[in-house]
Amino acid sequence: MIDTDTSVRTDWTHTEITALFARPFLDLVYDAQTMHRRYHTPNQVQLSQLLSIKTGGCAEDCGYCAQSAKFAQDTGLKATKLMPLDAVLNDARTAKAAGATRFCMGAAWTRPKDKDLDQVIEMVEGVKALGLETCVTLGMLNQAQAQRLGAAGLDYYNHNIDTSPEYYKDIITTRTFDERLETLEHVRQANINVCCGGIVGMGETAEDRVGMIVSLATLPEHPGSVPINRLVRVAGTPLAHSDDIDDLDFVRTIAVARITMPKAVVRLSAGRETMNDSMQTLCFMAGANSIFYGEKLLTTPNPAANRDMKLLSRLGMTASA
Q1: Which of 14, 52, 156, 222 gives the lowest tally of CB atoms within 10 Å of its CB?
Q2: What are the start-end ranges of the H helices in 192-304?
Q3: pTM for the complete prediction?
Q4: What radius of gyration, in Å, describes the C-alpha atoms of the chain?
Q5: Is 196 a catalytic residue?
Q6: Pick the catalytic residue: 23, 37, 38, 58?
Q7: Which letter does DSSP use for residue 156 in this model?
Q8: Is 58 noted as a catalytic residue in this protein?
């Protein structure tokens, strides 16, 4: 049994996190749920909705992503321009009416240009005026760009590390792991909450999953939100034929994230379309307390909203206010 009186730590060692992953499954889930109940309201799930405000044409070569221009000929994804403000706000109103409390906006850029950032800031201010938390993911940021977003009142900035430092170069070659950490530092300095997690099921080893959690749990401050994604295999991308991660190994990753980053909101993110209700329930038991809500995540499918609400009802769970 873990010591639930231990203060939140950012000095986790590789050996400690390896040992957590190796714990008997039921003990691990029990420990994670115990930690979850210490820091979070039981039986509540935070609902976020994600909108692609600018799709495709990205110069990055992330091996999992349909939005890379490098794979566009094989994926068939058409690049779009940045959405107009009114359309974004209409989608935000719909999301709020459906129960979402956070509205996340993603643009497929390596890094935003200043003129594009002007428009995104208008979106952030407009969505906040509707009473929703705001989150954006725009690629890499320099310090000045992060400060501008912070001044506009942005609540969260998403920038995932994706995987372990060792496996990273096998997934992405157009930006480095350290460049991702640099953007996270700019975001923290701008007093914006960090949303940062990773993707499992990309052909990584169990050791890489340990390395990913070590990297997250030893950041100077734990991310406020930690999305754990299960790879959605997209035809035409290099990872289209990756083997599925074992269901229990996925749940273990959720549980270790919860134990090592106890105050974070751990989001059961992409890949839920491939999970049955029992597996999602195990993830909630292991400490997941947020989901992306709505039938699409940028370019990939997500469970229908009514399916999510039916499951939460069956479990006696509610959406957090």
Answers
A1: 14
A2: 206-217, 247-260, 277-285
A3: 0.90
A4: 18
A5: no
A6: 58
A7: E
A8: yes
Length of the chain: 321
CA of residue 26 relative to chain centroid, distance: 25
pLDDT of residue 261: 98
Per-residue pLDDT at 233 = 87
Q: Contact 267/225 with Cβ under 8 angstroms?
A: yes
pLDDT in tens, 89-110: 999 998 888 888 899 999 988 8
**Euclidean distance between CA atoms 114 and 299, whole angstroms:** 25
Catalytic status, residue 267? yes
* 283 catalytically annotated: no
**DSSP for residue 244:** P
- The catalytic residue among 102, 175, 230, 267 is 267
Closest by CA to 274, choosing from 214, 218, 201, 210, is 201
Other C-beta atoms lying within 10 Å of the C-beta of residue 81? 9
Catalytic residue (one of 23, 65, 230, 258)? 65
Query: What value does the mean pLDDT take over residues 32-41?
Result: 96
Cα–Cα distance, 185 to 61 (Å, whole number):
23
Amino acid at site 218: T
Burial of 270 (C-beta count, 10 Å sphere; 0-12/13-18/19+): buried
Least confident of 80-84, 159-163, 188-192, 277-281: 80-84
CA pair distance 122, 278, nearest whole angstrom: 41
Q: How many CA atoms lie within 13 A of 213 on its CB side?
A: 32
Catalytic residue among 23, 102, 135, 230: 135
Catalytic residue status for 314 = no
Catalytic-role residue among 148, 180, 188, 195: 195
Q: What is the DSSP letter of 58?
A: B
Candidates 7, 2, 56, 45; CA nearest to 320 is 45
Distance, in Å, from the CA atom of 98 to the CA atom of 294, rounded to the nearest integer, reads 9
In whole angstroms, what is the distance from residue 277 CA to residue 275 CA? 7
Using N-to-C axis directions, what is the helix angle for 247-260 and 277-285, rounded to 10°?
20
What are φ and ψ of residue 213, in 5° steps? Answer: -65, -40
* Catalytic entry in 23, 62, 196, 233: 62
